[in-house]
Amino acid sequence: MKSVEQHISDVLDLVDPLDPIELDIMRAHGGVLAEAVASPVPLPQFDNSSMDGYAVVAADLAGASAQTPVRLPVVADIPAGDPSANAIRSGHCARIMTGAPLPAGATAVVPVEWTDGGQVTVAVGRSVPEGNAIRRAGGDVAAGSTVLRAGIRIGAAELGVLAAVGRRSVRIHPSPRVVVLSTGEELVEPGRPVGPGQIWESNSFMLTAAAQDAGCTAYRHGFIGDDPATVLDTLDDVLLQADIILTTGGVSMGAYDVVKEVLSRSGTVTFDRVAMQPGKPQGYGTIGVSKTPILTLPGNPVSAFVSFQLFVLPVLRRMRGLPPQPLPTVHARLAEPVTSSPNGRRSYLRAILEYDRSGDGDGVAFTALPAARQGSHQLSALAETNALVVVPEQVTELAAGSVVEVVKLPDLA
Ligand SMILES: Nc1nc2c(c(=O)[nH]1)N[C@H]1C(S)=C(S)[C@@H](COP(=O)(O)OP(=O)(O)OC[C@H]3O[C@@H](n4cnc5c(N)ncnc54)[C@H](O)[C@@H]3O)O[C@H]1N2
Ligand code: MOO
Hints:
Helices cover 18% and strands 30% of the residues. The protein is of the alpha/beta class. It folds into 4 domains: 4-18 and 174-320, MoaB/Mog-like domain (Molybdenum Cofactor Biosythetic Enzyme, Chain A, 3-Layer(aba) Sandwich); 21-40 and 149-173, Molybdopterin biosynthesis moea protein, domain 2 (Alpha-Beta Complex); 48-135, Molybdopterin biosynthesis moea protein, domain 3 (Molybdopterin biosynthesis moeA protein, domain 3, Beta Complex); 329-408, Beta-clip, CATH 2.40.340.10. A 6-stranded mixed beta sheet has the order 16-13-17-21-20-18, sandwiched between helices. A 5-stranded mixed beta sheet has the order 8-5-7-6-9, with no helix packed on it. The chain has a 5-stranded mixed barrel with strand order 22-25-24-26-28. It is elongated. Residues 277-280, 298, 300, 303, 376 line the site of molybdate ion. Keywords: Magnesium, Metal-binding, Molybdenum, Molybdenum cofactor biosynthesis, Transferase.
């Protein structure tokens, strides 16, 4: 059987970051920058006031105090956005608002609270240091300097920076279009009645949502039965909409494992058994003239979910232009003992991971409580958990209190 690490490496080899496109900055939200962004201008672009008050020559106020205020004539009124202020001379001042350009000649701004607020003349009851309440040109960003590196995700702060340096559009790696298709003759659309031996289809809903949570544009194509010609036709149909295709089901050893049957014939998709539980049967490769990547995940719902977290997420990250790192892991203390069958497969046990401050002293600040139901079909247990306890390939049991590696599943934003 193939190792988990080898399979991650094989699936990552299928994809490259998607070719960049230019988008309006608002639509670029959540995307990954495909260029370094520099500011064409200094920020601020001009010296300006950081307070509402009076632009003065600081030396004029050297002797000012509450008892002996200095009175200055107010020769101008400068709101934000007013570029027309004349220079002020010693002995004069200008009323100025926050963000308004500092008039030439002024060396400080006196906040209005230090004055009587006069509009013809103003009495100032304090001296003021040179440069007080002045925001200097270039004090935030020097002209030509890089403000955002290529490869970062555009969140709220990054959008603010893009707009502040005057960008209207930006080059980003587009969000991958993920098409999710499930297979299985027994499947029925939720909301419709199920007959004997049938089940409601759940994998395609779950994986479409997981791909959306991972920043992709995901489409649920739904499900099809086990007819080989229908599988091939449907894959052909979705090729145009997809940067990557995910399927579930039909990849193990059964007589009707149709995905494996039809794609094995293509010669471009490989089917392997990965040394893990759940998630053993995995297929990966490309299909169609455009060599669209396809990952065929096992049909058991928990197996499909765990396969998505371990293999699909890094692939989607690489397509988005992000480093394809796996989900983060932490060390945690097991709250209960666990067993794992001695089959050379690494187990990923669904568990509730909780922060535990009492463990801080020896560096293990989490506990992991494994779910009671660990079957690959036991989807309800999965929904209660937030982490995967890793039980190494050769380990068959672990006592309560053992320190284990735990994969943290993605949090919802
Ligand atoms: N003889 C062997 N049998 C099986 C092996 C094996 O090595 N030898 N491997 C087992 C493992 S491990 C897994 S995982 C499954 C994977 O099987 P398939 O990928 O072929 O999936 P199916 O047989 O189509 O379905 C498995 C199971 O999951 C249910 N299912 C499938 N699709 C959906 C869906 N979209 N929504 C909800 N539930 C779904 C399906 O009804 C089956 O119960 O094979 C084992 N067998
Ligand atoms: O590996 Mo299967 O994925 O055990 O359930």
